[in-house]
Amino acid sequence: MNELTAEFIGTAFLLLLGTGVVANATLNKTLAQGSGWVLITFGWGLGVFVGVIVAGPYSGAHLNPAVTIGLAVAGKFAWAKVFGYTLAQLGGAFTGSSLAWFLYSSQYNETTDSATILGTFSTGPAIPNTVRNLYSEILGTFVLVFVVLYIAGASFTADALPNAKIGLGSIGAFPVAFLVVAIGMSLGGTTGYAINPARDLGPRIAHALLPIKHKGSSNWGYAWIPILGPIIGGILAALLYGVL
Fold this sequence. Notes:
Number of strands: 0
CATH architecture: Up-down Bundle
CATH topology: Glycerol uptake facilitator protein
Low-confidence stretches: none
Largest sheet: none
């Protein structure tokens, strides 16, 4: 498996399980309806775990353009590969969320609230406030990328770095899974913690294109926040890591 295939498949697994757990917890007539935030945060964390297991040995398991860009800014990833990784992650996110939709298609048909339906695909603010919503995504992604950079940097010797596959997989699947759970539980209640442009944009495109009953708007007016915020957060984390 080459790097781009690994990023595509790893991100597809992440979004299959991540959007799947939100669908399971919120759509009508699922067996887990009403299970709540704890199930959702652990579901996303374990989705990251699965994606890292699959992609880590081959691509470093970035699974996230903010991680890819942050690593490039920190000098740990080639800028020439950023576009390819990002495109693979976006395609994987679209595919994984589409597979989750097909699995729960009967439950989608039974759900009439368009906000609930959109919430299974992409993120949105609990209280709309552009500055605070953007800050939420910046801060959550900063924590993610800084911890990844800090532990990955401490894990490899200088001689190993040129050949090492650095990404979420560099810190091990379990630690990064619990890192994502911690971010969701502590920082995710304002915007749903996209902390990943592909995680939000790929499913939002799927929401717009798929024949979903009662789906309503895809809320494109908000979509720039979970794209730009994580990128800014990843860059700031990389810059601070470089200083330290």
